[in-house]
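FAQ: What does a ligand-bound record look like?

Like this one, built around protoporphyrin IX containing FE:
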Amino acid sequence: MSEHHITPLRTYLIIAASLLFLSGVTVWVSYVDLGPLNIVVAMLVATVKASLVAFFFMHLLWDDKKNLTMFLMSLMFFGIFVTITLLDTEFRGDLDLNPEVKDPINKRAAFYDTLPLTDSHGHPVDEHSDDHHEDKDHH
Amino acid sequence: MSENIKQNYLNHPKGLMSWLLTLDHKRIGLMYLVSGILFFFLGGLLALVMRMELAAPGNDFISNETYNNVYTLHGAIMIFLFIIPAIPGALGNILLPLMVGAKDVAFPRLNLASFYIYSFGALFAMYTIINGGVDTGWTFYTPYSTQSTSNVVPMTLGIFIIGFSSILTGLNFIATVHKMRIPGLTWYKLPLFVWALYGTSLVQITATPVLAITMVLLILERFLGIGIFDPALGGDPVLYQHFFWFYSHPAVYIMILPAFGIISEIIPVHSRKKIWGYKFIAYSTLSIAFIGFLVWGHHMFTSGQSVFSQIVFSFITYFVGIPTGVKIFSWILTMYKGQVSFTPPMLYALSFLFLFTIGGLTGIFLGAVALDIHLHDTYFVVAHFHYVMQGGTIVAFLGGLHHWWPKTFGVMYNQTIAKICAVGVFLGFNGTFFPQFLLGLRGMPRRYATYSEEFVELHSYSTFWSGILGISIFIAVMNLFWSFIKKNKVDPGSNPWGAMTLEWTHTSSPPHPHNFEEEPVLEHGPYDYDKVIVEKTYK
Ligand code: HEM
Ligand SMILES: [Cu+2]
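The answer part, i.e. the structure of the complex:
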């Protein structure tokens, strides 16, 4: 076992302050529209916060490195899950020439009928123009 | 069990409470074993009900609705209540501390908690049955599972709860392997069953949380309509399948890795030969555990997922064949020029080699996108996964039970009956499931209570042999229990098969309540048949 590490109070306070600051950042960015990056930024901030808690408050930084390995493994598996799932959702219907099938599923959801239509970058599009064919380019 | 054998974990301490509150890994293992076997029989009964219905076309035995309930419960019970929790829970618990020379697992209280969490989850699953069943199939695919009026919530809640038991057991085993080994028992001197449990545990703690999330999302979707899976709310029903299989493909390795471990113990002992390729087997366990996380989409080839994913998943699936093949060849080479004796455990191990190879290879067929488009949701898939789960896992489990029975209980079962049953299981199994490959190839879809005339021959053949299979398994297990009544005791110090691992060489049968009277000193590796002579005491 690794010997017991005593963290100075100062460190705890600094971390606590950073967490509060980052919470502020989360609220603040929620007002900025970054299009599809919205979720990425939100997750990034949340991950940094969770890591600070794990590393300092939960002493992962000073612990047996096996525990760190476990932690990093869980991040890696999460990454695998999200990345490979996106290989599906981002490319779904690719080979299909029928635009009805090709469109990402949520663009045709009834729910979205109540919202202004946006393209995959979050920019508003004109409801009546047929922009399905443009989608091909960014793959 | 007996008065004249000295103190052992079975007779000391005494009383019901000493069992219910025990912290002894061996007793907890036995409680898992008993519940596991009960669920196995319940699931088996449901299987026979299905085979009865399928003996002839038409609905002459049960209705369509009942049939849907029966196959769902059969799958859910076998997988979530028996194979996943009970096999590591039973054999893993009983053997792991003994094999590493420890007094117990790293966290005995957590171990007991794990058993009770499992029991609590199982109650929900049983409630489902009393309350009229559930009809979605064990995979609970959306959108049907968010709409079905059957007991989707109690069943998924039960599975959610049982998942925690899985995670805690995995955690406990990992800590035990890291921290509780006796001095000198280095990683490469560990019995391969320990490596297998270690790999299983890694998968349990990394994959099971995703199952829990999936079940929670499904329940939330049903109650609150949060719109994760419902396209009308901007969700994606195929996303459910991603979630589910991200857990459930790794889960098939939770099911098969312990079986691999059992086979790696049985084959060298009953061939009296050093295992061939120890490190290959050990590392293939870890690589299977890892690759298992990258192939889940091979269950989704007809779900409408993107062509890009189809290709990626199909490609990676082939890689699973490599470490699996490494193991098969290592076992075969272990037997080569060994003194193979056809004991009951060895007969099961040989069946395993044959059946699992068929199961694994047909898995590769299904991993090929173009072929799977035709075979998906047909009996070919049913045959594939029964060859790996029953022909692989359950046959290995039966082999393991026969191998460690004299160790666990200090009594020997009737060898002749055991051998006949082992052969019966092999024949019954092939008779039941081989025709299902043909049925699948000819287009018989799975999960239907009836079928068109052309399939009647193969179906009735399958039903006939399933009877033989059921009877053989039943008698095999009864034969084991009969040994308590028969009291055909083995000498407490004996080593019937001449094995070399610590549980045979350094403790009595049944083991002492604290496993070893003093801390064992390692004298040789687990399979050093080339260096040391260990006598068989059972002829
Ligand atoms: C050699 C490695 C294996 C490969 C390449 C493989 C491949 C596959 C593929 C591609 C499918 C999907 C078929 C379809 O639905 O169309 C499948 C289904 C299945 N496999 Fe395997 N498999 C392997 C080993 C195993 C093992 C070891 C187990 C369990 C112990 C297992 C259990 C299952 C189950 C339960 C299903 C069906 C799930 C369902 O739809 O209900 N497989 N396998
Ligand atoms: Cu799979």
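Follow-up question: can I read anything off the structure? Yes, for example: Residues 1-63 of chain A form one domain.
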